[in-house]
């Protein structure tokens, strides 16, 4: 069940890296392992099959006999699946590279075509196969026969030719010796035939043949044969490779296998891209790319696993005595090394980049950015871009630390530097990646603070200095591409950090710096300034919009729009889109500001639908404002009246005790109530504690009417209704002072208070006044009698009064009662 011995021991270049999956009974794909796939003859059989050999222990993971039936499916350029009758289940191969998948797919297709042809023409196939049991001898006279076998054989016979070539171990050596003889004899006919034979063998697209052709012993002779294309002028490719192509070792590579793979990879690339670029088919190109990719991965793996090599590399890079040329070579090597790492698996790539960070790659790049050599700076930036595309968190983590904070400043400074024709946007992309809000909070906050505190003003100053009339055309003026990059960065920062942007651009004159780009003659810079304004107002912040309106910041935009006239261009569309956005989003502050400030300038464009809609929106806003103002005025007046009522009530209750004190003081002495004298049993009646009196009435001690046998009648408890009536009386006494208040509002406010409390206080007031002023019954005292007759009065004391005093008290009581009745009604 295993493949032949040569299959398991062949070089990894002849295999494609895959994962083997099998569909289980639950409908899920089970991972069977990872290995390399190749197509070879099944042991003890003449049939071809797929072999997958485990990459770790060289065990056979899968052997599948290729079927002539249409059971194979190709999915997403990297997966080949089929239903295997031997395993009675679905199988799938997931390729690491699309080129490997394409190569195996093409080979399966070729094998199926041969099998179908064998079924249809079994006799012919065997006849042809019998003729190809061996190749003709490699001699000058047999070259035409060899060419016919290689080039003119059918697709079915090509597999036999491949096997015969691989079986003859000396075939290529004999062919190259014959090439040397023909070249020495200048036998161009023989050289042209040799060119066609070598080209035909390459087009057989067999990986084992490629292994032999591209070996160090044969590769230069193979390229020599391909120099004699009869259809194109002769070109000395070998001379170019030997004399003009120089292999530079920035640091010595001591592994001979790694050196061999480096040289082989370059020569295959040269062969593919230069020598045979016009004759190779897609399948052969895919196979050659697969070999190159595999070689690159092998070289990177061998170098990264060599700890001595990596340490020596970074020791030289950090050496202060390193010359500029040596430094350039080392930096170029690191760049190429990082580029080649793309051939590795993702996990291995991440591990490699983290190892480089540990060795101090970012410190080296920071030192590179300090250089004055522009090529060196761009190369260092390319290395940073590789890290950003692979794992941005590595760079963010470095920059957020104290020792890496200066790298942002170097990137900003480099972004503002003129690199001539080599100007790129790498610096802008790296800064964007650092400021991205998707980064972890701790890293993001530190980086954002550094950028806004130290470097944003520097970017704005570049715009200002480049837009000043004095600096047009001067060295101080930055290139338009640099100004465009600054605008792009600002537009990126607005939605990413709205609070930071607001706090900075609310300062006087900051937005004006960006809008000074409207003075530039480059229209795309004017549009960039308008785009920034459009991005800024998309925050929909009222304070920011008020700042724009207050400082008339749209003036330069309207001026360039009016100056552009009726020309329909990008500038015209950008401004109209800005107006349309303001209208659609109902930004009332900006709508009023635009129409009220600039309508005299914009009125000549009122035929444009956007401006017509803007004017209609303005009228709607003003109508809404008018209606809201009327309703607001009524509500405000209501609130003022209510506040006045509250204040009057509060003042009244605060002054109430003083009024009643003054009323009590103005009463005749006869109306004042004296306290009950001490009883015969020694107890004294405390009228203030047992029956609290309203109105501020004062108890006086009266010793003239002591009567030891006097027993006061029981006091009646004041009802709650009396208390409420007293409160209502007191409140109504204050109503005439607030006649300026609407009656309806007064009634609502007074009714809102506790109705029970009003009635209780009113009842208390009436009861108190009746006790203080009105005598309930005339009391008759016998002149020389010790007994006192007590009538049914509301007071606990019985007072002796003269007839005149009683009459005066009756009159005053009736007067007060009548006034209270009138006011109460």
UniProtKB/TrEMBL annotation:
A Pfam family that the UniProt record links to this protein: EVH1_PP4R3
GO MF term set: protein phosphatase activator activity
Domain of life: Eukaryota
Domain Serine/threonine-protein phosphatase 4 regulatory subunit 3-like central: from-to ranges: 152-620
Residue span of region Disordered: 645-759, 772-825
Protein's organism: Tagetes erecta
Comp. bias regions, Basic residues: 747-756
Protein name: Serine/threonine-protein phosphatase 4 regulatory subunit 3-like central domain-containing protein
Biased composition (Polar residues): 772-802
Biased composition (Low complexity): 677-699
Positions with biased composition (Acidic residues): 647-662
A GO cellular component entry from the record: nucleoplasm
Gene3D superfamilies on file: Leucine-rich Repeat Variant (1.25.10.10), Pleckstrin-homology domain (PH domain)/Phosphotyrosine-binding domain (PTB) (2.30.29.30)
Domain PP4R3 EVH1-like, chain residue ranges per copy: 16-115
